[in-house]
Amino acid sequence: MIVLGVETSCDETSAAIIKDNTVLSSIISSQEIHSQFGGVVPELASRAHIRLIVPIVEKALKESGLDPNDIDGLAVTKGPGLVGALLVGVNFIKGLSVSWQKPFVGVNHIEGHIYGNLLSQKSEIRFPIIFLIVSGGHTQIVLMRNHLQYEILGKTRDDAVGEAYDKGAKLLGLGYPGGPKIDILAKQGNPDFVKFPRALMNNDAFDFSYSGLKTALLVYLRDLHEKEKEIHLADICASYQKAAVEVLVKKTLLAAQKFGAKTIGIAGGVAANTLLRDWLKIECDQRKYELYLPDIVYCTDNAAMIARAGLEHLKRGKRDEQTLNAFPSLILQSFPNH
Ligand code: KG4
Ligand code: ZN
Predict the structure, then answer these.
(1) Residue 301 CA to ligand 1 centre (angstroms)
(2) Residues 6+ apart with CB under 8 A from 122
(3) Phi, psi of 333, rounded to the nearest 5 degrees
């Protein structure tokens, strides 16, 4: 099955074409305009998507070497995300569906991240899987017993872990997005230099809280001399990162043990993080869990992951209608309940 996917939920405009589990083309344009504001400006994101969507889909089609007649179906992110940004993709796909006479489905962005991981796996998928979903907007632990079947075990009560990275980086004067910057600097630092708090570690539930970590950094920096901050920037980054990642690793392992998982997977932008990947690798080797790491390109937002999740729906006969809307607060639900 050949599927064209489109993703416009935040600040990446992306189109991709996949054939089963193979990516034929994947075009991702990250909107640079937001970096000067230290975060995504929704109205600017919508306008940039409108400008970029047609040339990016044309490029994806050209790079795949295919013709519209070869495409079996279309997939688009319908939520969660910024409503104006989502509407650009949803309306574009509705129009394309009429003009190309192809069926289409709306896909949950989180589900897309999960399938961005599964797209990276070359052998047969082994369920049950505990998925840790970590992005700029989400921090959740999800149990997957089969394709398109999700049980949300826990999620963040306040900030997402990617948000903690981005806000932390802003406090440290590192710019947006902060995750990759802290990740790189942390490599040269001492992770035990500052003891930052690890929230909700002493209960065996799977909820997270990251707003306290950011506040702890704010308080720590307020009392620190500018010179000290400069000298110890890498140490502060390493300590902050260790506090953020330790909670993720511990809770994921606990969930895997409790629900008898065979496999652990990570998905979303923060799944690109070096410490998270390395730490989970060591733990999974010791405990004999298979570890599914997504290729780095399929961690942050991209349309290949949306096409891959859409393919699972299309092949089970799911079709959306021209009445499809965008859903900014959509939660992850199992098929066929949505
Ligand atoms: O999945 P994504 O592209 O967008 C959302 O759906 O939110 O994730 C973006 C997030 C940002 O918060 C960014 O700082 C974070 O992923 N991120 C990282 C790394 N690369 C991206 N966080 C930690 N380490 C990284 N290497
Ligand atoms: Zn995302």
Answers:
(1) 9
(2) none
(3) -130, 150
Predicted structure pTM score? 0.95
**175/35 Cα distance (integer angstroms):** 7
Q: How far from 209 is each of 35, 68, 149, 160, 273, CA to CA, in Å?
A: 26, 46, 25, 8, 19
Which ligand is nearest the CA of 299, by number?
1
Among 135, 159, 172, 174, the mutation site with the greatest number of ligand 1 atoms within 8 A of its Cβ is 135
User: Domains in the chain, ordered, with CATH?
Assistant: 2-114+298-315 (3.30.420.40), 126-293 (3.30.420.40)
How far from each other are the two terminal CA atoms of the chain, in whole angstroms? Answer: 22
**Ligand 1 contact, 136 CB (< 6 A):** yes
DSSP codes, 275-309: HHHHHHHHHHHHHT-EEEPPPGGGTSS-HHHHHHH
Answer whether 116 contacts ligand 1 (Cβ < 6 A).
no
- Compute the distance between CA of residue 271 and CA of residue 332 in angstroms, rounded to an integer: 18
CB of 269 closer than 6 angstroms to any ligand 1 atom: yes
Residue 140's DSSP bridge partners are 133, 155
Residue-by-residue DSSP string for 154-178: EEBSS--HHHHHHHHHHHTT--SSH
Q: Which ligand is nearest to the Cα of residue 45, counting in written order?
A: 1
Is residue 290 within 8 A of residue 317, CB to CB? The reply is no
Q: Measured from the CB, is residue 268 less than 6 Å from ligand 1? A: yes
Sign of the CA dihedral with 213 first, then 257, 141, and 12 last: positive
Sequential pLDDT tens for the chain (338 residues): 999 999 999 999 999 999 999 999 999 998 888 888 878 889 999 999 999 999 999 999 999 999 999 999 999 999 999 999 999 999 999 999 999 999 999 999 999 999 999 999 999 999 999 999 999 999 999 999 999 999 999 999 999 999 999 999 999 999 888 999 999 999 999 999 999 999 998 877 999 999 999 999 999 999 999 999 999 999 999 999 999 999 999 999 999 999 999 999 999 999 999 999 999 999 999 999 999 999 999 999 999 999 999 999 999 999 999 999 999 999 999 998 64
